[in-house]
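User: I'm putting together notes for a lab meeting next week and I want to include a structural view of one of the chains we've been expressing. I don't have a solved structure, so I'd like a prediction I can at least talk through. The sequence is below, exactly as it appears in our construct file.
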Amino acid sequence: MTDPTVNNNPPSADPAPPPVPAPTPTPAPGPLNWRRFVPTNWQSIVATLAVIAATSLLNRLGFTPTPLPVPDPPFPIYQGTFGWVEPREDDRLAALESPQVYRWEDTDAAQADPLGDKDGNAFLWKFSAAVRGAPVPTLNQGSVGSCVGHGWATGVNYLVVIQAALKTGPPIDATVTIAPEVIYGGSRVNVNGGRAPLFGDGSNGSWAAKFCTEYGTAARGKYGPYDITVYSESNCRSLGNNGIQNELLTECKKNVVGSAALVTSAADAKKALMQGYPIPVCSNTGFAGQSSRDADGFLRAAGVWPHCMCIIGYRQDKDAFYIMNSWGESWVSGPLGIGDPPAGGFWVKSTTVDAMLKQGDSYAISTLKGFPRRKLQPDDWLVAAPSPSKVVIAPRRADGPFAPRLEFGGPLYAMAP
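Assistant: Thanks for the context. Below is the predicted structure for the 417-residue chain, given as structure tokens.
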């Protein structure tokens, strides 16, 4: 029997001493860290200067590094300059108080039941082909925020060819091209008491409606010291700052737009186009992020563009409108769609156009006072082009000194109010 008081376990051996840690090896000397000696806020500057110095040295020694290729974006996107400044309510009312500016619903044309062509379309560019043998020039505002002048000049240019083709209203020269910088400068300065109320570029449709119907427009040419033979961005800015004066203003007053009418719905826009009235359209609806029209020539609404363009066509099959931009012909590519419209524009759904017009700064324009009812028959959209066209130099007329003039089977046409 084991005695519990006796320790029967043999004595244990002494515990092993703890292992001695291996000595830490001395690190090999490395390169000097220059960042320890340069303040943090200077480090990026010093690094940049070092790269520049090294690159310069390599270039001097004849070693030119090959730049890394930059990948192309998924699709090239061009976005031009805008320039629409939303009018105050006072600006809109001031325009409507002008003698020849109306609300569309108050015009005789609003009561008409227009037909369009045999398919129910209205392609205003067809009239240009008839009397000019070519489309109305596509405008390009460049880097100036003068879209309002360009949108309105596009509209007036289409008025010119429509009036010449239909031989309605005062005789008119189908070959003239209206200078958008004149409308831009006059809309900013002349209608605002001789001083532009904005810092920087910009205008709006209400100011343009007042200027075009009260002060007028001018075609390309020289008028005293004013040379507007070709578009110049610096000249556009100068007129935008100083307004239209002296000989240029005198010329404008010979060529006043007959009337303008505020259009606020797609249904009214369709009715206006089918009677041959183009519509400079001002809104902040954008069509951003698109480099190409779709298979039918459309762009979709996307983003914000405080911009003025011009509506010049309607297609019945898709209930859509053709809008001309002012960024030249090549800013967007892809199919143009039905009717062979001019390059530089795109088709837009009726619902989008309706939203644009409801912003209340878009006007149908007419060379005929009061927007008389104009019933175009289907055959009116099929006016044959002149054959052969004959350009003649005619004596200057006091009421419209534009030459050369196009003789196309009738009297000579010169632009007049």
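A couple of points you could mention at the meeting. The longest helix spans residues 40-60. The chain has one domain: 89-407.

User: Perfect, that's what I needed.
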